[in-house]
Design brief:
By secondary structure, the protein is α/β, with parallel strands linked by helices. The protein has twelve helices and 13 strands.
């Protein structure tokens, strides 16, 4: 072999050796949807239909990832955010998620909204081993790593919230006679189970229960019936329309019981104003996120960052809309988790890191509320703080309370 060819062959061998041994020290690993330059994130939300108000979440997340990309991306990779409308329809959700996975070839499906839609896509995504990350629903069933290892929740579960109300009453009103009004579906029953678990041996504090159907035009008769029980506390596990009716009817029949309303029905515009501010004074609930429109957060560093983001990337957003705060917090959580993945962007590592969040505090969560997950705990947020309606707004009070079992 002539010297020149021998030198070339030796050079090629050395190059091959360097090429194969070098990256083993810090190997980049990818599954479908990730490359050296890009991470494809799939998303569904109702931009149309009966729950189209939630479309704001998708718009906020899209704006958030644009900010991330303008700042260099995540570990040098740009986010490609692909978001489709599922119109809050489970069959449409299945169709759109199949498109995301099979045509768009996304790495993960992030923050899909609603219990019906997530239920419809859960088996498919778990069979395909595609992460169903940080779902936008409070149903308790997303925290089931044994049966659904590719699905993880984000917001506090309805059962966590129910346990928190029970804890509060046992401490502050131990002789209470409690009644419960609940929606007769998975949402209502989930809350009710948490409430009873929270009371534990003191479940006898609940002296009456009434369920209603979402098809009922009014729940006035249920309220009259519950008042007759002689209770001095009503826990209202209702969706917004019925929560407003409940507050109004209690005032009408002069029932002075302490009222606790579920977190999903605390909107000032959709519940408290239609019920009449004068009728809602002293109503209790619990929350986990800051209200950007509340003056108390005016100098809060997290809210300052949030408002600066809106000014630049989503100036049309209503900063008083809790969906905007929600989308920002969820997108910030995904960003943190992807940073933790480093150069191993396999779906298995994504689930490993999603289950390894330790005391992470997005800008928008209340002080003291942190995200924690583990291989056996797929419920990232399990703390809330009590709040009381006063004047025309909610005032937070007391300590942050954990809704975890055994805490």
């Amino acid at each position: 072999m002539p010297a020149s060819r021998w030198t070339a062959a030796l050079g090629a061998a050395v190059a091959a050796f360097v090429f194969t041994s070098g990256p083993a020290l810090a190997q980049k690993k990818y599954d479908t949807g990730a490359t050296d330059s890009e991470i494809k994130i799939g998303h569904i939300v109702p931009y149309s239909g009966p729950a189209s108000a939630y479309g704001i979440i998708g718009k906020t997340e899209e704006a958030f990832f644009k900010m991330i990309n303008d700042n260099g991306g995540i570990n040098g990779r740009k986010i490609k955010f692909i978001s489709y409308d599922d119109a809050y329809s489970p069959p449409k959700a299945v169709e759109q998620v199949r498109k995301l996975v099979e045509s768009d070839e996304v790495l993960v499906v992030f923050n899909p909204l609603g219990t019906p839609s997530n239920t419809a896509i859960q088996k498919y995504l778990n069979a395909k081993k595609v992460p169903q990350l940080f779902v936008a629903t409070g149903a308790t069933k997303w925290n089931d790593p044994t049966h659904f290892p590719w699905t993880i929740g984000w917001q506090p579960s309805y059962q966590s919230e129910g346990r928190i109300y029970a804890k509060y009453l046992m401490k502050e009103k131990p002789d209470a006679k409690v009644t419960v009004l609940y929606q007769n579906d998975d949402f209502g029953k989930d809350y009710l189970k948490g409430l009873k678990d929270g009371f534990g041996a003191k479940a006898s504090m609940i002296i009456a229960e009434e369920s209603y159907e979402i098809s009922e035009p009014t729940i006035d008769n249920h309220i009259v019936k519950l008042k007759a029980s002689g209770a001095d506390v009503l826990i209202s596990i209702t969706t917004p329309k019925f929560a407003a009716q409940t507050i109004k009817k209690m005032a009408e029949i002069d029932w002075k019981a302490l009222q606790i309303v579920a977190n999903v029905s605390t909107s000032v515009g959709a519940v408290m104003r239609p019920a009449g501010f004068e009728n809602g004074q002293g109503v209790l609930s619990a929350h986990y996120a800051k209200d950007a429109g509340d003056a108390q957060w005016h100098d809060d560093p997290g809210i300052k960052k949030f408002l600066a983001f809106l000014d630049k990337y989503y100036p049309d957003a209503d900063r008083h809309n809790s969906q905007v705060i929600y989308g920002y917090g969820a997108a910030q959580t995904l960003t943190k988790m992807l940073e933790m993945c480093g150069d191993d962007l396999t779906r298995a590592n994504i689930m490993k890191q999603a289950a390894n969040l330790k005391d992470f505090a997005p800008d928008t969560l209340l002080p003291g509320i942190k995200i924690n997950t583990s291989a056996t705990d797929f419920a990232p947020i399990e703390q809330l703080q009590m709040m009381r309606f006063k004047g025309e707004k909610w005032d937070m009070f007391g300590d942050v309370i954990s809704g975890e079992v055994g805490h």
